[in-house]
Amino acid sequence: AHGLRHTHAAELRTEGVDIGIISRQLGHRSIATTATYLDHIAPVAVTEAMRGRVW
Hints:
mainly alpha
């Protein structure tokens, strides 16, 4: 489940969604938590990998 949250957050960030909005969407109390969550992944790479998958 957390993998889907990471992907969702990464895609939103790649699309230019404000980190504050992403933070609220994820239910984080602090934007710092969201930033930490996103800092360790490469959003563009994750987004491209997910879009290239056959569901």
